Amino acid sequence: MIVLSAAFHCIINALVRAKGNSMNSFSWISIQNLLSALLLVVLSASPTSAQVYVIEPDDYAERTELNNVHPQVELAIHSNLDSFPEDFGEHPAPNIIPVTALENEDIFGGYFTSTGTKTFGNGGVRFNSSSRAIGMRFLEPATSVRIDAIGTSNTNAVVGVLDVFDANGVFLESVETTTLDRQQVGALAISRDQADIGYARAYSSEDHSQFGRFDNLRFSTVPGSIMFELGDVNRDGTNDFADIPPFIAVLTSGTFQAEADCDLSGAVDFLDIAVFIFFLVGS
């Protein structure tokens, strides 16, 4: 990856010099045409049919951080319902609490789960209250979201809540479960006639027990239609040279960020370099 990073720097420097004074207009246009062709080839491989995805805590080891395990959604824990989703990823900054996969104990002959023995948690805590809501940022517009809420007590019922918002943070709709006693499961599901869900959050209602647990996230998206600016890796609303350091950081670390996945392959790798440069020099 160090060699890849160095090579990328060389490409960028060469393009900067070319766009400046050392290359004639014909050569510069040729480079732009080449990058356009590369972009067309790469993006033509992107899926076009509707997709249904699942994030199941049982598929991961104990305490695995799930914030960026799926290329179509980012997960985050939120403390303030009033500031969601404009502060997505902050809890509050810089105290980021990860969404985790946590094992449940067998209590009275069962688990506080809907499938298997693991549920979503925040750090090492197994429940998701209104101050520990599971936030979701969809990287392609979603048409439906579903997650299971589980009751944890016979004396204090849980009511699970699911809210959805569009890509601009405008509230769309909400759904609640009935009251859930110990080990009772209630499905929280919202389906939309159009693919307009940009964000969602799941939590225990403030009017009931705050100790509800959540399991088995499912969502459907429309691939090929994105809700963010490709190449804008620093998320400042502009594709410019300030995006180069964060792009290289994502590329060399082996992590995932949607804005850096310029070829929409579901991974950030060397194939994204040419398309990233296309967005950079075309801005």
Give a quick rundown of the structure:
Helix content is 21%, strand content 27%. It is α+β, with helices and mostly antiparallel strands and 283 residues long.
Keywords:
two-stranded antiparallel sheet, elongated, 21% helix, 2 domains, 283 residues, alpha+beta, Jelly Rolls, 4 helices, eight-stranded antiparallel sheet
- CATH 2nd-level architecture of the largest domain: Sandwich
N/C terminus separation: 27 Å
CATH class call of the largest domain: Mainly Beta
- Overall pLDDT: 80
Percent in helix: 10-25%
List the helices and strands and how they pair.
Elements: H1 2-22, H2 25-43, E1 51-55, E2 73-78, E3 99-103, E4 118-122, E5 133-150, E6 160-165, E7 171-176, E8 185-191, E9 197-204, E10 213-221, H3 244-253, H4 272-281
Antiparallel strand pairs: 1-10, 2-5, 3-4, 5-8, 5-9, 5-10, 6-7, 6-9
Helix pairs in contact: 2-4
Structure report:
- The chain is an alpha+beta fold and 283 residues long.
- Helix 2 crosses helix 4.
- The two termini are 27 Å apart.
